[in-house]
Design brief:
single chain, alpha+beta, Cathepsin B, Chain A, two-stranded antiparallel sheet, 12 helices, about 15% strand, Butirosin biosynthesis protein H, N-terminal, BtrH_N, DUF4872
Length: about 325
């Protein structure tokens, strides 16, 4: 089996991190924030009818796989992507491809990754990592949220690739088969910004975008009387967890998009994007403040805890700020 030199760079989020690391391997250098922005990764959704581990799902980024799909389409990268009916077929194909010296992106469940600390191993089935070779029987792993490369045994990797639950990874693996040597980023940046603004402002369904933040705010306000204290704490805890622990977290995604706007401002010589980058950083701080206070409510840490009503007001403040921000962004000529 050929040994591959793979340049591992730690990133904030798995999907945009794998994009950046894989593309760099093929000579197309693109930062993680740029990948996130071109892929219109920033989003919000609250899905009370889609239960994740028994509680409603909340997302602060676009659905898994969408960033990758959009970036590849906008930059002209062609990918080979496969899913499998059995772990045996999936592992055989992985061995074949990395045996040819090709690093492979893999979808996995965090729960079965033994190099994660136990506290971080939960049932999240949309984690992306790169397998770039083997050391004996073990697979060499570039996991973008880890500071160094690591290894994983075949049994754990097969379990991670075929974890049950929503969504099922089904052994998904992917790798570039055609990567352009150079690209102009102006059009992809414009397309990414236009799509992000549309998704945050114009989806008519009340559970998505800015409307979705307000939708969640109304529900949070009534959690205690509708759910009871224990369930209210469980639901609120999951909102924080999805914001601050899953990948980059809600506030983290706002900071990453702000970094994208700053990079785009420098690249395109568009100072208005730099101003909006600073504005979004302030919105990220609003989200962090909400998470901090919601965490105190969950833990009942102090006598002067904020109420669920006050948490609802904080979310409405986030919604108002994001609405103003995305309306301004939609008017910038890129």
């Amino acid at each position: 089996m050929s040994q591959v030199q793979f340049n591992h760079v730690q990133t904030a989020h798995c999907e945009s991190g794998v994009i950046s690391n894989l593309f760099r391997h093929y000579g197309l250098t693109i930062s993680e924030p740029m990948a996130f922005g071109i892929g219109a990764g920033i989003f919000f959704g609250h899905l009370p009818f889609v239960k994740v581990n028994g509680v409603p799902g909340t997302t602060y980024r676009i659905w898994p796989g969408a960033i990758f799909q959009r970036v590849c389409s906008r930059l002209g990268v062609k990918m080979q992507s496969q899913k499998f009916s059995s772990p045996e077929k999936a592992m055989q194909e992985l061995d074949r491809v990395i045996g040819e010296g090709i690093p492979v992106g893999v979808l996995s469940s965090v729960y079965y990754l033994p190099y994660f600390p136990p506290a971080y191993r939960f049932h999240f089935n949309a984690h992306n990592l790169v397998i770039y070779g083997k050391n004996g029987d073990n697979y060499q792993v570039s996991d973008p949220i880890m500071d160094v490369v690591t290894e994983i045994d075949p049994k754990s990797l097969a379990e991670a690739r075929f974890a049950k639950g929503f969504p099922e990874p089904k052994g998904k693996m992917y790798y570039p088969v055609q990567v352009p040597s150079g690209v102009s980023l102006q059009k992809p940046i414009r397309q990414g910004i236009e799509q992000a603004c549309h998704y945050m402002l114009k989806i008519p369904v009340p559970m998505f975008g800015v409307k979705g933040i307000r939708f969640l705010a109304k529900r949070v306000k009534h959690y205690p009387e509708k759910l009871g204290d224990r369930k209210a704490t469980l639901y609120l805890g999951n909102i924080i967890r999805m914001q601050e622990e899953i990948g980059t977290g809600g506030a983290g995604f706002r900071f990453m998009y702000a970094a994208f706007l700053q990079e785009a401002a420098d690249l395109l010589q568009q100072p208005e994007l730099a101003k909006l980058s600073r504005e979004l950083t302030g919105i990220g701080d609003l989200w962090r403040n909400f998470a901090f206070n919601a965490g105190r409510v969950c833990k009942s840490r102090s006598a002067d805890n904020v109420s669920y009503g006050e948490l609802s007001e904080m979310l409405l403040q986030c919604a108002a700020a994001e609405e103003v921000f995305f309306k301004k962004l939609s008017k910038v000529k890129v």
